[in-house]
Protein 1
Amino acid sequence: MSDNKPDSKSTNGQKPTFPPGMKPKGPSSGPKLPPGMKPKGPPSGPPKSGLTGPVGGDGASVATKADFTSDQDVRWCPGCGDYAILATVQRLMPELGVPRENVVFISGIGCSSRFPYYMNTYGMHSIHGRAPTIVTGLKSARPDLDVWMITGDGDSLSIGGNHIIHIMRRNVNAQIILFNNQIYGLTKGQYSPTSEVGKVTKSSPFGSLDHPFNPIALVLGAEASFAARTMDRDPKHMKKMFMRAHDYRGTGFVEVYQNCNIFNDGAFFQFTEKESKSDRTIYFEHEKPLVYAGGTKGLRLDGFNLESIDLENGNLGVDDCLVYDETSRELAGIMARVHWKPDLPQPFGVFYREDRPSYDDLLHDQINAVIERSGKGSLKKLLEEGETWEIT
Amino acid sequence: MALKSVETLPEATVLFAGDSGDGMQLTGTQFTLATAYAMNDLATLPDFPAEIRAPIGTTYGVSGFQLHFGSVDIRTPGDEVDLLIAMNPAALKVNLDRVRMGGTILVNSNTFEKRNFGLANMISNPLEDGSLDKYRVIQVEITRLTRETLKDFDLNQKEIDRSKNMFALGLALWLYSRPVEPAKKWISAKFGKSPLIRDANLELLKKGYHFGETTEQFVTRYEVAPAKQKPGRYRAIMGVQALALGIAAAASKSGIQILYGSYPITPASDILHSLAKYKNQGIVTIQAEDEIAAIGTAIGASFGGSLGITGTSGPGIALKGEAMGLAHIIELPLVVINVQRGGPSTGLPTKTEQSDLLQALYGRNGDAPIPVIAASTPGDCFIVAYEACRIAVKYMTPVMLLSDGYLANGSEPWLIPNPDDLVPFDVSYAEKTNTTVDGEDVFWPYLRDKTTLARPWAKPGTAGLEHRVGGLEKQEGSGVVSYEADNHEYMIKIRAEKIQRIQAEIPPIEIYGDPDADLLIIGWGSTKGAIEAGVSRSIKAGQKAASIHLRFLNPLPADLGEVLGRFSQHLVPELNNGQLVKVLRDQFLLPMEAMNKIQGRPFGPSEIATKIEEMIG
């Protein structure tokens, strides 16, 4: 598959050796560059990410994007960022090698949540905010399934806020794609929990007073074990993030900046459009130095904060940049807080990854351990448990 | 040793009452077990406060356990108490009105002192002020006798005082000629790891029993002969346990994996506690983050081909409403258990009520009928849980199961069922396409069974049957999203019709009492014992009365209209402000009379009998 070796599937029931946040620092934890490491330009997508990549090794029928496309007309507004996300997922599916019948898409309510109808897999369009609960139940009952959850900023961060935090801490083995467009689309344009302060909408004619959530920081605070961010305008990066989330055994959370061209057009243009993207974004990767703007700028640590440094004036070089370590909770915290800063580029990539057993693995390990210890239960014995007496 | 006379009673009601920390629930449970060993029929009513450890000595910290037992058919925990064992003044104050005139009150006299009168807001000592003149009062220095018994044990004062309930238990066992062995066995097992505590408790139990024999205070000892019960192996069962066992039976008989998602709530938490232990019975449990998550996990499991179940009490049901609507429209099996308690809002969390019937029948947005079935005795919870699971799967629908606090915590002797005797419970999943569109074989998830109108259940992992479900209205047959007007009306009606067809599962109504009576009592849920005992009492007194009891509240039995028509007077007793009576009046346009009690306590047979007399007298 792609270059995500660090995520090779952990084995069933593997236990973390260190409590969360106590992982030993690798050689890349400090602001130093491993020898011979060259600064990188914009990231390249996974090799051979063609439209209909070959599946699995058995040489059987080769699934294509079309196999994962349902016969339903897509009903999003023309020009919506959702189209790009849908196409990316449909293109990714054949590459994953998971039989179509084992794939399930679960969503809540909102524009993004219509997604399952367009996938020719099993799926459920459930109720507002509750998709994480359906996913938790489904994976607990059927750990064998490949479950994807589709949600939005209103669905997961507002009405479903309680569930998103709990699925994160449990670490249910599923992928979550959160379409963040910083607006309520389906209800026609009210401010959302990620809208910026002062946003003028129908429900905030004098500007929103609500301080917004930072979704990555939120899930990290909720004990997320895998958190990444990507954008609708970069299908290659998007696909890579989805694949990495999929390869991760646990809750693979991916926030996607998605443009709502009707109610919040251009919300992310500074990060997604050619004119400003290079200076305003940084694509960061595990064990690589934090450089951006075509290699002309970098980020280094100044105490607990990141600062932008000029790599062209001869004073500072790539060696001065922080080398990112996606297994460091501390760095993830610092990186997550680089959020809409005027003097720093917005980060895109995998913020954090922690090897922690998934909930569904633990659940069935426990069940199997009980069965191993006391044997398969007998109903007759269960009914006669405790004090009984005979009446003749 | 004083010579005691022995009196044989047909039945008796005993109430143990004390502080929350006095171990009254435990004492009651052990007395119940001994009574079961004595082969009496019995019914129990634990009555405890919502506070875990309310301040010692106060009235709001009083915990009680009532037990009615006899050689006759016992249907309720008893109308009036024959023996009240009160461990402190507050326990006496709270429960005095339940003791029959001339009944016996046994008090721990060491606690009847000024400080405790103050805590219980009593102005004088009831043992001296004449307020107990209508009762037989027995004063026993339980605290002092306990301390004396254990003076040579290396235990501190607190540990010694905490054991005094065992002295009371021993005394009560002697008084009603119950066997001591079950309690001895229990103590030995319970405190096996701390021999000192074990020996102390065994010693107190023995001393309490001997005290009865030696003291001059008791001149009479009672006996209650064994009841005539169906032969077989019995155990004592509480409603919550029976529910959990019914679920386990459903898993075992069907072979289907069950996922129980629940959020802790009184009085339903014990279902989760039981099921969490049944890991090797094909049951997965999840303690969810909230009530909505609990039902969400159950729906997710059902989508995966398992049977999802969620359990809660009224406030939790209020939160699950939207998800029940989802389960109704996507037509997946789901069982929702409501162990009702006093409402509205937080209401009376530890007291019983039947006030969620209308919520169960109508508490969802849109027209979303679901089957509603109610258990009538603690043991009946087993069958009802099994049936709820079976019907949910057979008809692909959420099913609401109503229990209540009285059934949940009350217990009765239970003839252990033979798993082979349970009705078969088969599950079948769709395995191949079921129709053809433009010459192509396709799977339509909403193509219904002609008899039950259930849709096929295709579980993920089945190749070729990939499909999407959701809360949006769908086209009949294909299941694709449809906003078409006529289709919506059709779907609303066909889903309702599917629920109505569950009538086929309901056996003909059995009439209890005198079928030629003018008066018919219609009951549902946990009032069955009280209603039938009341009817029996009236019949014995020469009056004519009959009753029927509804297990299915939706759909109602097919022959209900015909049965109601045979009687000219109708009475509907409920532990609410009149709910079933509204449903019946609406459906049958009969002038039914409501009888309501909303006090957090069940009906007693005498209340029913009195009402019968009033109506036909």
Protein 2
Amino acid sequence: MFHYILKRLLQSLIVLLGVLVIVFFTLRLSGNPIDVLLPPGASEEMVEIYTEQLGLDKSLVAQFGIYLKNIFQGDFGTSYYYKEAVTGVIFERLPATIQLTLFSFLFTLIIGIPAGVYSALKSGKASDYIVRIFALIGQCMPVFWAGLLLIIVFAVQLNLFPTQGTGSFRHLVLPSITLGLYSAATTVRLLRSSMLEVLSKDYIQVATSKGLSKRKIVWKHAFKNAVTAILTVLGIQVAGLLAGSMIVETVFSWPGIGRLVVQSINNRDFAVVQAVVILIASIYVVINLLVDILYSIINPRVRLMKGSSK
Amino acid sequence: MIRQIVKNKVALFSVLVLILVVLFAVFAEFIAPYSPEDQHIESKLLPPVWDENGNSSFILGSDELGRDVLSRIIHGSRVSLIVSLFGTLLALIIGTVIGAISGYYGGKVDAILMRLVDIVLAFPFILLAIFVIAITGPSVFNIIIVAGFATGVNLARVIRGEVLHVKENDFIEATHSIGANNFRIIVLHILPNIANVLIVIATLEMANLILLESALSFLGLGVPAEVPTWGKMLAEARTLIISNPWNAIFPGLAITITVLGINLFGDWLRDYFDPKYVEK
């Protein structure tokens, strides 16, 4: 157990380092990072500050060293556009994104789990088909279009929710549903097939022949095993929601880090973009690590299996 | 195969959708009633023809510059198809090379390649695409490269698993023993055996790439301004959504139906190749 966790931890650290390497070299891919980090026509003074800060007059290896040192000290540089530390700019907007992501995940669970179980129990019946068609369409719709449709119906036509912005719980409803739609649809499809697989197992037959109530069989025996099987995917979805927030926040003018990235790209404020990219990728890696550890606690077979996970 | 498709209603629907989209893309100039850039100043922001204010010469209405929505949707299919087709081809090449080498040779090579794959996969797909496009600049070529690379790395994992599976067969060992070299074994004996899986996942990835391209276009990171794309049409419609919701409907419908068609076709292909296949 301890050995497995240590191994996964080490792997995650390597991946994190790799993330930093990729970001570093992508920024230098296009030549002088100053051209990317600062908008055209930036003042001499700014150019000098950046050259000094990033050590651009030094060798590539030295630059990478400075870059790593700054990041581990939590220094992501100064935003050209906001004229303040990048970390400050991000932390100001992070709560809004976390709020949105959490509510979307809640939506995913509230819709995805009952619908997935229901669909599996009614397998082959008309109601199963209806759930599956909805799930399929949910996976094929572009997220931003789903958002626009929700705005048209619930904000413009019915006037139930505001079209954009933040401030109250009512502001949170449409963006959360939009962001959660795809992962809810994915959850329905995965949970359905996972449930069907579990329900065909021998121990379910045993439980049935013991005369246990259907409710007990479904929730205690089948659901528990089915949901364990899709736990990894659920974890990845949280991270996916974070990435999807870039689109959803743009649709609803939600003041989080997703919208910040898109705006910063338009402002050519790449110190901010770089920091958010590193932040989201890191959260992604950490969530994956936590899910794997949790999974290995729930399902001992994983840690007994050979070598690398997945 | 064709008989099978005609028998299956869902497969028939998906193939018809795909044929229609391809026809749109190839013959856009002949099918579209107007040029996508023609501005009909006297008929701005028209609703579709079935609305009481509709105009029969603009079947799906017009946008705020008086451009015909139907013509723009027909022309918009081009970028979507080009990106998804070439992106998927590139992904297949990258994925097959990495996956085959990793799965076939195993050991250290495998460990190193798979760690590299892990690193790329640590970036959510859309985030990586946005980051790279923002730096390299938006163009069809750059989008294809980024999409193909990120998807290819994803495919490498699946292909590696398949190669591992096929490698265990006796006929591989037999081929080995009559002196075939590794390259020959991989290309002539292993890849043909995983071709079915490759075709299915490639089809499903095409759908993903259409969604990716539309998302990039929507965020303003798609192709240059003058080319119409479905994502860009939705971005433009968003600003006028309260007064004119119609413009926000049809481009999204085009994306959804295309993606649905490709996904259904992919699902059908999977069943066709392997009726026993259980959805993972």
